[in-house]
Design a protein that fits this description.
Largest sheet: 3 strands, antiparallel
Number of strands: 3
Shape: globular
CATH architecture of the largest domain: Orthogonal Bundle
Distance between the termini: 32 Å
Structural class: mainly alpha
Number of helices: 8
Order of helices and strands: HHHEHHEEHHH
CATH superfamily of the largest domain: Winged helix-like DNA-binding domain superfamily/Winged helix DNA-binding domain
Helix content: 55-70%
């Protein structure tokens, strides 16, 4: 069994169970991101770059705008234009001017981007399989709980108003 959050951060007392929950969520999110980053590193990708490529693969053959990519990104604070620049330099995506709106840019995944994702698919499946130790029904409950947790704080509400 994994160490408790208390053992992980060497803290025994929390102001409340809600504070413990928030700290545990933050710790676990960073833990997951670190694991994910370590898995992607040999392929020359960061988690936000991988996320963007997966969005584009799901979007194909329809091009995506920068606004659409930003809206669908897991990390909303990612600089989508900069991510596209980096992926374009690696020849994993291609930008073109949108024929309907010359001020907009269309982004599509390239054959090289699709090939890289195909290589990654198996590694990702193997990594996700580790979570199969958690029964599917319990995984669903955790996911549903996380959805409900986000409902506690309305989108766009200033951070200072979110504090209890």
């Amino acid at each position: 069994m994994s160490p408790s959050i208390e053992d992980e951060i060497k803290q025994r007392l929390f102001h409340s169970e809600h504070q413990r929950l928030v700290i545990n969520l933050l710790f676990t999110a960073h833990w997951m991101e670190f694991r994910h980053g370590r898995l992607l590193r040999p392929f020359g990708l960061t988690p936000p770059q991988f996320n963007l490529l997966r969005i584009l693969r799901g979007q194909q053959p329809v091009p995506a705008t920068i606004a659409l990519l930003t809206e669908r990104m897991i990390d909303k604070s990612s600089n989508t234009s900069r991510l596209v620049d980096k992926l374009e330099k690696k020849r994993l995506v291609k930008r073109t001017i949108c024929p309907q709106n010359r001020r907009a840019v269309d982004v599509v995944i390239t054959a090289a981007g699709l090939a890289l994702l195909k290589k990654l698919d198996q590694a990702i499946l193997e990594d996700e399989a580790r979570f199969h130790a958690l029964p599917a029904a319990e995984a669903r409950r955790v996911s549903d709980f996380l959805d409900r947790l986000r409902d506690c704080i309305p989108p766009g509400e200033p951070a200072e108003r979110r504090a209890p």
